[in-house]
Amino acid sequence: MKTLLDVKNVSKRYGQETLALSNVNFSVNEGEFVSIIGPSGAGKSTLLRCINRMIDATDGEIHFENEDILKYNKREMRRLRTKVGMIFQHYNLVNRLSVIENVLHGRLGYKSTIAGILGLYSEEEKRQAIKLLGLLGLEEQVYKRCDQLSGGQKQRVGIARALIQDPKILLCDEPIASLDPNASKIIMDYLQTVSKTMGITVIVNLHQVDVALNYSDRIIGVSKGQIVYDGYPKDITTNQIHSIYGSEAGDLMIDLGGRNAG
Ligand SMILES: Nc1ncnc2c1ncn2[C@@H]1O[C@H](COP(=O)(O)OP(=O)(O)OP(=O)(O)O)[C@@H](O)[C@H]1O
Questions:
Q1: Mean predicted confidence (pLDDT) in 132-152
Q2: Assign residue 225 a region: left if phi > 0, alpha if psi is -120 to 50, beta otherwise?
Q3: Of 39, 69, 162, 250, which sees the most CB atoms within 10 A?
Q4: Keywords, A to Z (predicted)?
Q5: Domain that holds residue 62
């Protein structure tokens, strides 16, 4: 297995008081599906934002395809961003634009500013957008405005927009937090398909422990900015879930099927 991402001794401070990440270490292999779980404020979003350099880690190294991305200049950062697809809780779509226009925005990282502003996309890019929307079950929605879609459909547009970048990795920050259980299942199934059939690595921040256990190759548990679990879903115990969630654990409905009690 080839390592795609290697996070070494990463810390992130906001101002003087908040140490959001403290000496975080983990690596992710190509094609792996990893869920990051932990209570509110544990540092999950901060971690994803450091990986795509939306924010800068205060300390440590982040290697992506064996290069330290914290040393990247602007041009290298632009190249990195085309390889990293982002999926957001609130979709981050332009609601007044059509579905296909939103998907094509995923190509902007490959274009000059002028071509981007003028919305100049090739026929091949448009064909690819329509193909991806078809794969995500949105063939009927291609020319609709995004504000006419359900939450689950919007998130599928978000996935299509990320995939048209031709990414190596998808970073998904609470992708199902605004969705009902049915729509959530559809989104998680698509993310799993992306990982298994396209070989794209997926890292997903999740609040729902049961979903993380069902879908992931690996679980990373974060508490107070530190990794407190890194292993297979099948090996996680109720005690470990309690140590990840602390006092919030009692509110979680976790069914480990009696396998890992203790
Ligand atoms: N821009 C910021 N400025 C200052 N502090 C911040 C900022 N963003 C996050 N924090 C703090 O850093 C810590 C980690 O926050 P983060 O959003 O990464 O946690 P999280 O695990 O993603 O939480 P949630 O599940 O609620 O989204 C929290 O204490 C938060 O208040």
A1: 97
A2: left
A3: 162
A4: ATP-binding, Cell membrane, Hydrolase, Membrane, Nucleotide-binding, Phosphonate transport, Translocase, Transport
A5: 3-251
